[in-house]
Amino acid sequence: MITLVSYCAIKWHMTEQEITDTFEMLPDWDERYEFIAELGHELDAMATVDKTEHNRVQGCTTPTWVTGHLRAGDPPVLEYHADVEGTLVRGIVVLLLAPFQGKTPEEVLARDISDYIGRLELEEHLSQNRRQGMHAFIAKLKTIARACAEAA
Predict the structure, then answer these.
(1) Most Cβ neighbours (<10 Å): which of 1, 140, 144, 148?
(2) Whole-number Å distance between alpha carbons of 65 and 128
(3) Which domain holds residue 107?
Protein backbone atom coordinates (compact mmCIF):
# COMPACT_ATOMS: atom_id res chain seq x y z
CA MET A 1 0.00 0.00 0.00
CA ILE A 2 2.95 2.36 0.33
CA THR A 3 2.77 2.88 -3.43
CA LEU A 4 -0.88 3.94 -3.19
CA VAL A 5 -0.13 6.32 -0.32
CA SER A 6 2.85 7.85 -2.12
CA TYR A 7 0.90 8.19 -5.36
CA CYS A 8 -2.07 9.85 -3.71
CA ALA A 9 0.06 12.24 -1.68
CA ILE A 10 1.80 13.65 -4.76
CA LYS A 11 -0.91 16.26 -5.18
CA TRP A 12 -1.91 17.94 -1.96
CA HIS A 13 -4.72 19.72 -3.70
CA MET A 14 -6.77 16.56 -3.55
CA THR A 15 -10.47 17.10 -3.57
CA GLU A 16 -12.68 16.14 -0.69
CA GLN A 17 -13.99 13.21 -2.76
CA GLU A 18 -10.48 12.01 -3.67
CA ILE A 19 -9.52 12.06 -0.01
CA THR A 20 -12.58 10.09 1.11
CA ASP A 21 -12.09 7.62 -1.76
CA THR A 22 -8.47 7.10 -0.73
CA PHE A 23 -9.48 6.61 2.91
CA GLU A 24 -11.98 3.96 1.87
CA MET A 25 -9.29 2.11 -0.12
CA LEU A 26 -6.89 2.00 2.82
CA PRO A 27 -7.69 -1.12 4.86
CA ASP A 28 -6.72 0.04 8.36
CA TRP A 29 -5.86 3.07 10.45
CA ASP A 30 -2.14 2.43 10.40
CA GLU A 31 -2.20 3.03 6.65
CA ARG A 32 -4.60 5.97 7.01
CA TYR A 33 -2.24 7.61 9.51
CA GLU A 34 0.60 7.03 7.06
CA PHE A 35 -1.47 8.64 4.30
CA ILE A 36 -2.24 11.64 6.54
CA ALA A 37 1.46 12.00 7.36
CA GLU A 38 2.34 11.83 3.65
CA LEU A 39 -0.17 14.60 2.96
CA GLY A 40 1.59 16.67 5.60
CA HIS A 41 4.79 16.61 3.55
CA GLU A 42 2.96 18.32 0.71
CA LEU A 43 2.01 21.42 2.73
CA ASP A 44 4.32 24.28 1.79
CA ALA A 45 6.04 26.11 4.61
CA MET A 46 4.61 29.50 5.49
CA ALA A 47 6.84 32.56 5.50
CA THR A 48 8.10 33.36 8.99
CA VAL A 49 6.63 36.86 8.71
CA ASP A 50 3.13 35.29 8.49
CA LYS A 51 3.61 33.23 11.65
CA THR A 52 2.11 35.90 13.86
CA GLU A 53 -0.15 35.66 16.87
CA HIS A 54 -2.98 37.05 14.71
CA ASN A 55 -2.63 34.13 12.28
CA ARG A 56 -2.17 31.51 14.97
CA VAL A 57 -5.04 29.09 15.54
CA GLN A 58 -6.05 29.45 19.17
CA GLY A 59 -7.06 26.10 20.61
CA CYS A 60 -4.42 24.02 18.85
CA THR A 61 -1.81 22.52 21.16
CA THR A 62 0.60 22.24 18.22
CA PRO A 63 1.51 25.72 16.93
CA THR A 64 -0.64 26.20 13.81
CA TRP A 65 -1.04 29.25 11.60
CA VAL A 66 -3.40 30.02 8.76
CA THR A 67 -3.92 32.97 6.45
CA GLY A 68 -6.39 33.53 3.67
CA HIS A 69 -7.16 36.02 0.99
CA LEU A 70 -9.52 36.37 -1.94
CA ARG A 71 -8.04 35.24 -5.23
CA ALA A 72 -9.29 37.24 -8.20
CA GLY A 73 -11.86 35.51 -10.33
CA ASP A 74 -15.52 35.49 -11.12
CA PRO A 75 -16.44 34.97 -8.37
CA PRO A 76 -13.41 35.62 -6.19
CA VAL A 77 -12.51 32.57 -4.10
CA LEU A 78 -10.56 32.02 -0.91
CA GLU A 79 -7.00 30.87 -1.02
CA TYR A 80 -5.78 29.60 2.32
CA HIS A 81 -2.20 29.02 3.36
CA ALA A 82 -1.40 27.13 6.54
CA ASP A 83 1.60 25.84 8.40
CA VAL A 84 2.00 23.70 11.46
CA GLU A 85 4.75 21.94 13.33
CA GLY A 86 4.45 18.18 13.27
CA THR A 87 3.95 15.91 10.28
CA LEU A 88 0.71 14.22 11.31
CA VAL A 89 -0.94 17.51 12.24
CA ARG A 90 0.25 19.01 8.93
CA GLY A 91 -1.62 16.18 7.20
CA ILE A 92 -4.74 16.83 9.24
CA VAL A 93 -4.54 20.48 8.16
CA VAL A 94 -4.41 19.37 4.52
CA LEU A 95 -7.50 17.18 5.12
CA LEU A 96 -9.33 20.12 6.67
CA LEU A 97 -8.37 22.60 3.96
CA ALA A 98 -9.73 20.41 1.15
CA PRO A 99 -13.45 21.25 1.60
CA PHE A 100 -12.75 25.00 1.83
CA GLN A 101 -9.86 25.81 -0.52
CA GLY A 102 -10.96 27.65 -3.66
CA LYS A 103 -14.49 28.31 -2.42
CA THR A 104 -16.25 31.64 -2.08
CA PRO A 105 -16.49 33.12 1.42
CA GLU A 106 -20.22 32.43 1.35
CA GLU A 107 -19.63 28.77 0.48
CA VAL A 108 -17.10 28.43 3.31
CA LEU A 109 -19.44 30.04 5.82
CA ALA A 110 -22.38 27.86 4.76
CA ARG A 111 -20.40 24.61 4.73
CA ASP A 112 -20.79 22.15 7.57
CA ILE A 113 -18.08 19.51 7.19
CA SER A 114 -19.30 17.20 9.94
CA ASP A 115 -20.36 14.66 7.27
CA TYR A 116 -16.85 14.78 5.74
CA ILE A 117 -15.21 14.39 9.16
CA GLY A 118 -17.61 11.51 9.83
CA ARG A 119 -16.75 9.73 6.58
CA LEU A 120 -13.06 10.00 7.48
CA GLU A 121 -13.82 8.84 11.05
CA LEU A 122 -11.54 11.58 12.41
CA GLU A 123 -13.55 12.13 15.60
CA GLU A 124 -13.05 8.50 16.58
CA HIS A 125 -9.36 8.24 15.68
CA LEU A 126 -7.88 11.51 16.87
CA SER A 127 -6.94 12.34 20.44
CA GLN A 128 -9.10 14.79 22.38
CA ASN A 129 -6.47 17.54 21.93
CA ARG A 130 -6.30 16.98 18.17
CA ARG A 131 -10.12 16.98 17.89
CA GLN A 132 -10.22 20.31 19.74
CA GLY A 133 -7.51 21.65 17.45
CA MET A 134 -9.41 20.40 14.40
CA HIS A 135 -12.52 22.33 15.42
CA ALA A 136 -10.46 25.43 16.27
CA PHE A 137 -8.84 25.25 12.83
CA ILE A 138 -12.23 25.04 11.09
CA ALA A 139 -13.46 28.00 13.15
CA LYS A 140 -10.38 30.02 12.10
CA LEU A 141 -11.03 29.23 8.41
CA LYS A 142 -14.58 30.53 8.83
CA THR A 143 -13.35 33.65 10.65
CA ILE A 144 -11.06 34.40 7.70
CA ALA A 145 -13.93 33.78 5.26
CA ARG A 146 -16.18 36.15 7.24
CA ALA A 147 -13.49 38.88 7.21
CA CYS A 148 -12.98 38.44 3.44
CA ALA A 149 -16.74 38.59 2.81
CA GLU A 150 -17.06 41.78 4.84
CA ALA A 151 -14.08 43.38 3.07
CA ALA A 152 -15.38 42.52 -0.42
Answers:
(1) 140
(2) 20
(3) 2-151
Q: Assign residue 144 the CATH number of its domain.
A: 3.90.1010.10
Tell me what the pLDDT averaged over the chain comes to. Answer: 89
Based on the structure, what is the number of domains in the chain? 1
Nearest to 44 by CA among 76, 66, 22, 21: 66
What is the enclosing helix (H) or strand (E) of 130? helix 128-151
Report the distance separating Cα 90 and Cα 26, nearest Å: 19
Look up residue 56 and give its DSSP letter. Answer: B
User: Residue 114 in contact with residue 43, Cβ under 8 Å?
Assistant: no
d(CA 102, CA 109): 13
Q: Where are the alpha helices (DSSP H) in 13-86?
A: 16-25, 29-41
Q: What is the pTM of this model?
A: 0.88
- CA neighbor of 140 nearest in space, from 66, 35, 41, 60: 66
